[in-house]
Design goal:
The protein has helices at residues 64-83, 119-132, 134-152, and strands at 5-10, 25-31, 44-50, 56-63, 97-103, 106-111. It is of the alpha+beta class and 154 residues long. The strands form two sheets. A four-stranded antiparallel sheet has the order 1-2-3-4. Strands 5-6 form a two-stranded antiparallel ribbon. It is globular.
């Protein structure tokens, strides 16, 4: 592990979604960045994977603001697909923009990917997968909601 780690979640392999108890991802951490390309960030999230020798190695590192941006994208996407049944194709081809979120003086656009030549099939598969992952996502959503409500008090 990193001597700059501040917070950690051990035994992540026990709760890693459909890979639970079979995952090679053993730990999640927060701390000072390890990878050179992230050194200018103050905090990063790290994913630690166990290799075949049993050693933990850094598998991925994401600057903390990108973790939040991914959560914003995911949460807005989940909200969008709760109502997408209203569209025959599950989206409006004339207006693929879901929302433009103001972030850091700019915009985080959230939109259906019209660059995908198979978007009509991809979106159906995506929605089906979201529904199948409902139990894994729902529980995590409830936990996150509770934590975000607590943060709102400060």
């Amino acid at each position: 592990m990193n001597e700059q780690t501040v917070m950690m979640s051990k035994s992540y392999d026990h709760i890693d979604g459909r890979n639970a108890y079979h995952s090679d991802i053993k730990s999640l951490t927060l701390g000072m960045p390890i990878l050179e390309e992230n050194k200018k960030m103050q905090i990063a999230a790290q994913i630690w994977q166990q290799d075949k020798n049993g050693e933990l190695n850094l598998a991925q590192e994401i600057p903390i603001h990108q973790v939040f941006d991914l959560m914003i994208l995911l949460c807005r996407t989940l909200l969008y697909f709760k109502e997408a049944y209203r569209f025959p194709l599950l989206y409006d081809p004339e207006n693929p923009t879901v929302e433009r979120m103001g972030v850091q003086g700019g915009v985080l656009p959230i939109e259906v990917c019209m660059d995908n030549p198979n978007i009509n099939e991809s979106i159906k598969t995506f929605v089906k997968s979201l529904n199948e992952l409902g139990e894994l996502i729902g529980e995590r959503q409830r936990v996150l909601t509770h934590i975000l409500e607590e943060l709102g008090c400060y």
